[in-house]
Amino acid sequence: MRPSFSSLSLSAASLSHTPCLTSSLTSQKMRLILLRSALKRGASKAIRSFSSESAPERKVAILGAAGGIGQPLALLMKLNPLVSTLSLYDIMGTPGVAADVSHINTRAQVAGFVGDDQLGDALKGADVVIIPAGVPRKPGMTRDDLFNINAGIVKGLCTAIAKHCPGALVNMISNPVNSTVPIAAEVFKKAGTYDEKKLFGVTTLDVVRAKTFYAGKGKVPVESVNVPVVGGHAGITILPLFSQATPAANALGAEDIKALTKRTQDGGTEVVEAKAGKGSATLSMAYAGAVFADACLKGLNGVPDVVECSFVQSTVTELPFFASKVRLGKNGVEEVLGLGPLSDFEKEGLEALKPELKASIEKGIKFANEN
Ligand SMILES: NC(=O)c1ccc[n+]([C@@H]2O[C@H](COP(=O)([O-])OP(=O)(O)OC[C@H]3O[C@@H](n4cnc5c(N)ncnc54)[C@H](O)[C@@H]3O)[C@@H](O)[C@H]2O)c1
């Protein structure tokens, strides 16, 4: 997979090296210094590439921008030099978030919109709409437990997207992604605006986790790791393909791969439990959402060979939606790539995930058609 998100990966790489450098300074002080210099480099690179590359105008809208994911995602998109307009929408709190983020000296012009009356203006002219609106999990909840609340929120927001920016690429973060993407598809079909090339379930956090856990266990440099993650975005429907991971980590045996697979599948729950009732992954999710949105923008701008995993309409299996590697282009999905060779363990995982994923997809379609 082509590494994307060039300017921010610099910052992320710098921060990830923190543990090697903390011998003489306290770790907190060191982290602050690294954060400052990483952001400075990100910002100056952003300004450099804005003036020298004259990237096209691109409007990105974030729906749910005042939330746990929305706020750091707004920050990261403000740092992205490919964004010229950043529209922040929520049912509350966006004027403050927008005022705050707008003071950062990067290209994107920021505007905050709050409440239903302003949703249309938030969306008009958007090239990419990112949706982290909704409620997050608490300990003991599955992503499916969020269905009743988030399904309605997603349906409402997608109805507005169909009306105000029907050509935008939609990046769905709200859970359960396995159902909210089919809900969005149904809403768009009813409105006559559905284009399967433009609807994405964001599964990038599964990829981010798989890369991190694999690098840690396999003792390979994390910034060079690639791991495709296929299937869906909940529990066993998340299927990391460690047999295709690069670089090869020869020391990893079958039990290690099993443990890595389980940890990737349970990564969200790990965070939910550690936050003990205060929500689910927000910072790592914002990073993952920013990586995926950046890939979408690069594709729109004609950068060749941009590939990320995403939950999209698919013929890779018999299921109508499935996550796999996707090549992004000027119209969104350019090509849904196949699974490649699977190990026996992955083949078993693939068969095991299908009934649950099928049920979640059908639940979404049913909801959209009955409500
Ligand atoms: N795809 C993934 O990998 C992934 C990872 C983590 C979390 N999530 C999901 O992302 C969603 C948001 O999580 P969070 O931690 O940011 O939650 P949060 O509660 O902190 O923020 C959600 C925000 O959505 C807003 N909101 C609610 N209804 C809205 C509406 N109709 N229009 C616009 N905004 C609305 C809320 O006001 C709030 O600001 C949850 O569904 C969570 O499960 C997805």
UniProtKB/TrEMBL annotation:
<feature type="domain" description="Lactate/malate dehydrogenase C-terminal">
    <location>
        <begin position="203"/>
        <end position="367"/>
    </location>
</feature>
<feature type="binding site">
    <location>
        <begin position="173"/>
        <end position="175"/>
    </location>
    <ligand>
        <name>NAD(+)</name>
    </ligand>
</feature>
<keyword id="KW-0816">Tricarboxylic acid cycle</keyword>
<dbReference type="InterPro" id="IPR022383">
    <property type="entry name" value="Lactate/malate_DH_C"/>
</dbReference>
<feature type="binding site">
    <location>
        <begin position="64"/>
        <end position="70"/>
    </location>
    <ligand>
        <name>NAD(+)</name>
    </ligand>
</feature>
<feature type="active site" description="Proton acceptor">
    <location>
        <position position="233"/>
    </location>
</feature>
<dbReference type="InterPro" id="IPR001252">
    <property type="entry name" value="Malate_DH_AS"/>
</dbReference>
<keyword id="KW-0520">NAD</keyword>
<comment type="subunit">
    <text>Homodimer.</text>
</comment>
<feature type="binding site">
    <location>
        <position position="175"/>
    </location>
    <ligand>
        <name>substrate</name>
    </ligand>
</feature>
<dbReference type="InterPro" id="IPR015955">
    <property type="entry name" value="Lactate_DH/Glyco_Ohase_4_C"/>
</dbReference>
<keyword id="KW-0560">Oxidoreductase</keyword>
<dbReference type="Pfam" id="PF00056">
    <property type="entry name" value="Ldh_1_N"/>
</dbReference>
<dbReference type="GO" id="GO:0006099">
    <property type="term" value="P:tricarboxylic acid cycle"/>
</dbReference>
<dbReference type="GO" id="GO:0005739">
    <property type="term" value="C:mitochondrion"/>
</dbReference>
<dbReference type="GO" id="GO:0006108">
    <property type="term" value="P:malate metabolic process"/>
</dbReference>
<dbReference type="InterPro" id="IPR010097">
    <property type="entry name" value="Malate_DH_type1"/>
</dbReference>
<dbReference type="GO" id="GO:0030060">
    <property type="term" value="F:L-malate dehydrogenase (NAD+) activity"/>
</dbReference>
<dbReference type="Pfam" id="PF02866">
    <property type="entry name" value="Ldh_1_C"/>
</dbReference>
<dbReference type="InterPro" id="IPR001236">
    <property type="entry name" value="Lactate/malate_DH_N"/>
</dbReference>
<feature type="binding site">
    <location>
        <position position="209"/>
    </location>
    <ligand>
        <name>substrate</name>
    </ligand>
</feature>
<comment type="similarity">
    <text>Belongs to the LDH/MDH superfamily. MDH type 1 family.</text>
</comment>
<feature type="binding site">
    <location>
        <position position="285"/>
    </location>
    <ligand>
        <name>NAD(+)</name>
    </ligand>
</feature>
<protein>
    <recommendedName>
        <fullName>Malate dehydrogenase</fullName>
        <ecNumber>1.1.1.37</ecNumber>
    </recommendedName>
</protein>
<feature type="binding site">
    <location>
        <position position="137"/>
    </location>
    <ligand>
        <name>substrate</name>
    </ligand>
</feature>
<feature type="binding site">
    <location>
        <position position="90"/>
    </location>
    <ligand>
        <name>NAD(+)</name>
    </ligand>
</feature>
<feature type="domain" description="Lactate/malate dehydrogenase N-terminal">
    <location>
        <begin position="59"/>
        <end position="201"/>
    </location>
</feature>
<feature type="binding site">
    <location>
        <position position="143"/>
    </location>
    <ligand>
        <name>substrate</name>
    </ligand>
</feature>
<dbReference type="InterPro" id="IPR001557">
    <property type="entry name" value="L-lactate/malate_DH"/>
</dbReference>
<dbReference type="InterPro" id="IPR036291">
    <property type="entry name" value="NAD(P)-bd_dom_sf"/>
</dbReference>
<feature type="binding site">
    <location>
        <position position="150"/>
    </location>
    <ligand>
        <name>NAD(+)</name>
    </ligand>
</feature>
